[in-house]
Design a protein that fits this description.
Layout: H1 2-18, E1 38-40, E2 45-48, E3 57-62, E4 74-81, E5 91-94, E6 103-107, H2 108-117, E7 125-135, E8 140-142, E9 148-153, E10 164-166, E11 173-176, E12 184-189, E13 202-209, E14 219-222, E15 231-235, H3 236-245, E16 255-265, E17 268-271, E18 276-282, E19 287-289, E20 303-304, E21 306-307, E22 314-321, E23 329-331, E24 345-349, E25 352-357, E26 371-378, E27 383-387, E28 394-396, E29 416-419, E30 422-429, E31 434-438, E32 455-458, E33 465-466, E34 473-474, E35 480-487, E36 495-500, E37 504-506, E38 527-530, E39 533-540, E40 543-548, E41 557-561, E42 564-567, E43 572-574, E44 578-585, E45 590-595
Parallel strand pairs: 2-9, 11-18
Antiparallel strand pairs: 1-3, 3-6, 4-5, 4-7, 7-8, 7-9, 10-12, 12-15, 13-14, 13-16, 16-17, 16-18, 19-20, 19-23, 21-22, 22-26, 23-24, 24-25, 26-27, 28-31, 29-30, 30-35, 31-32, 31-34, 32-33, 35-36, 37-40, 38-39, 39-44, 40-41, 40-43, 41-42, 44-45
């Protein structure tokens, strides 16, 4: 019995100590709110409300305030005059979704109406401070840091949003003739409408260097119809002059620009929704003209010169000059000055050979006897060169008899001048070796004067000729005679050709017929005798034939009539069967057919 009483007492004591009372905070009920911060818009934002776009949205956002236990907060946007206190707001809005979202989305009209209700005048700017207030019913927390500044201009004038149409945004260079007054760059954009109908929308096109600030444009244009039209045609020369005035004086260098359009209605200004990229290359063209040139003094026939990619602003041409016919000059249009193309011409500065001048110039005549010359015009530095020692082309390299020594090239490895900017010749090349073409008896000094020699190699693909970033030509196939062509007749696409040093007759007048395949041994082969001349004596039947340079290909063939050949020309005729001696002169572009 004694033990039972003892156990009962111990149990009572244990219960007494184990049931100690917990004290609850009846005021806070355990709730709290963590700190939170504004995400957007940034401090010191300037917001101009647009009467033409009242439904456009404005969004305020912030991070979430973490609740202490479980009650999620609600949020409210509050704004006060900058001279006042955020605790006494001028305007306030619950956040989206009845105050539960961490964003507030207002239309421009909602915000404008709220300010109007507080007697802020139409079109007036009001400086405010703003914050976000969070509450869970018992605790109120305001966004951390000082209140954010925002300047809001109430609706007055306005313009609707609009897009740019063209020129479309591109980083591909647009090539223009900087001297043309008859070519235009057409700018178009979507029409914008005013918020106040009485204040018509006017437009201005603004240009900046890529990445620049449109608040300080390089230059501007007012659109057609005194700014009222949503289009403008700008002359090539005018835009080139604007670029030069803005500091882009090197016309040979592409200029990366950006452009947009600013619409204005009353006191309201707005730019297009997007900005377009525009890269402009002012392609300066230079032509050679004069009584000593093949063009004579007919400007419309003036010869286009090749642009030197290594020396922007420099142009050159390989041409035959006939001295004593009045000399030569340079033009930037195939038209004499005074015409609609705004042409200029350059000649020799009086008393100063080698110096060019655009005004009060004289013809360039004192260069030497008639012959083939390389004529160079350095427009940037106003220099010219008429050089006989570079009016040629030759093969140099380990594959040639000259080796890599330019002084050994001419005349044995030299090509024949075929006409303006074209050379062709026959050179023995060694298999497994490389070679190049060069117009002088010395290697050019890289980065040296434009008056030095020029060497050429393979460009970006077979058949593409390059003077810069070129590679050596490989010898394809076995050692032997090759027909080499340097072709700059298309001044924008310099080309080369290397074919076998062979000529065959093909056609139904020959033993081999029209089968030009590589395995047709019956095709009569011509024999090369030097200086571009070929001969064959063979039996022919009545019919037609042509000359081909390589079996298995029609890419390079000769036809013709009346003793003159042409690439891809007409079939040649044999009237009666018999033995014939046929000659071909590739240099002089002639042929003969003689019956034995």
């Amino acid at each position: 019995m004694k033990n039972k009483i003892l156990y009962t007492l111990l149990a009572v004591v244990a219960i007494a100590f184990g049931c100690k009372k917990t004290e609850f905070d009846e005021v806070s009920k355990g709730e709290a709110l963590g700190a939170f911060a504004i995400a957007a818009p940034v401090n010191n934002t300037m917001l101009v409300l647009n009467s033409a776009t009242p439904s456009n949205k404005i969004t305020f956002s912030w991070t979430a305030a973490t609740p202490g236990v479980s009650t999620k907060p609600t949020y409210k946007f509050v704004a006060a005059l900058k001279t006042g206190s955020i605790d006494v707001p001028l305007i306030e809005f619950p956040s989206d979704n009845a105050g539960t979202s961490t964003t507030l989305t207002l239309t421009q009209k909602q915000l404008d109406d709220a300010l109007k209700a507080k007697s802020i005048a139409d079109g007036a700017k009001v400086d405010l401070i703003w914050a976000i207030q969070a509450t869970n019913g018992n605790v109120k927390v305001v966004t951390t840091g000082t209140a954010m500044n925002i300047a809001i201009t109430r609706m007055g004038d306005g313009v609707t949003n609009f897009l740019l149409y063209g020129p479309v945004s591109s980083n591909t260079s647009l090539v223009i003739n900087p001297n043309s007054t008859t070519d235009f760059l057409n700018f178009k954009w979507q029409k914008s409408f005013p918020g106040v109908a009485a204040n018509l929308v006017k437009y201005q096109i603004k240009f900046v260097a890529k990445g620049g600030n449109f608040a300080s444009p390089l230059f501007t244009y007012t659109s057609n119809n005194n700014g009222l039209d949503s289009a403008l045609a700008v002359g090539y020369k005018d835009i080139s002059d604007k670029l030069s005035a803005a500091g882009f004086t090197d016309q040979a260098t592409p200029v990366a620009l950006q452009w947009t359009v600013e619409a204005t209605s009353g006191n309201f200004k707005k730019t297009a929704d997007y900005v377009n990229d525009l890269v402009i290359t002012r392609e300066v063209k230079i032509f050679l003209v004069g009584g000593d040139t093949p063009a004579s003094w007919t400007a419309e026939n003036a010869l286009p010169m090749i642009a030197d990619v290594s020396n922007p602003g420099t142009f050159y041409i390989y041409v035959k000059l006939n001295a004593g016919n009045g000399g030569l000059k340079f033009l930037n249009q195939q038209q004499w000055p005074g015409g609609s193309l705004n042409a200029s011409d350059w000649g020799m500065k009086p008393g100063s050979p080698g110096d060019a001048v655009v005004d009060n110039e004289v013809n360039i005549e004192n260069y030497g006897p008639s012959g083939v010359y390389r004529v160079t015009f350095d427009q940037k530095n106003l220099k010219y060169y008429v050089q006989a020692n570079y009016g040629r082309m030759g093969a140099v390299g380990g594959a040639t008899a000259a080796g890599w020594n330019p002084p050994n090239i001419f005349p044995s490895q030299g090509l024949n001048f075929m006409g303006t900017n074209k050379f062709m010749g026959f050179v023995n090349l060694t298999a497994g070796q490389e070679w190049k073409m060069i117009d002088g008896a010395e290697w050019p000094n890289g980065g040296g004067p434009v008056s030095q020699s020029r060497d050429y190699g393979k460009g970006t693909a077979d058949g593409v000729l390059a003077e810069t970033n070129e590679s050596n030509f490989p010898v394809v196939g076995p050692s032997g005679l090759r027909r080499i062509i340097w072709d700059g007749t298309d001044i924008k696409n310099l080309k080369y050709s290397v074919t076998d040093g062979t000529i065959f007759l093909v056609g139904n007048a020959t033993a081999g017929g029209w089968d030009n395949s590589a395995g047709n041994a019956a095709l009569p082969a011509m024999t090369y005798s030097g200086n571009g001349k070929w001969t064959v004596t063979t039996a022919m039947t009545a019919g037609e034939f042509k000359f081909i340079v390589t079996k298995g290909s029609w890419d390079y063939n000769y036809g013709g009539k009346a003793g003159a050949i042409a690439e891809g020309g007409d079939n040649l005729m044999i009237a009666t069967a018999g033995s014939y001696t046929i000659t071909l002169d590739e240099y002089n572009r002639t042929y003969t057919i003689t019956k034995n």
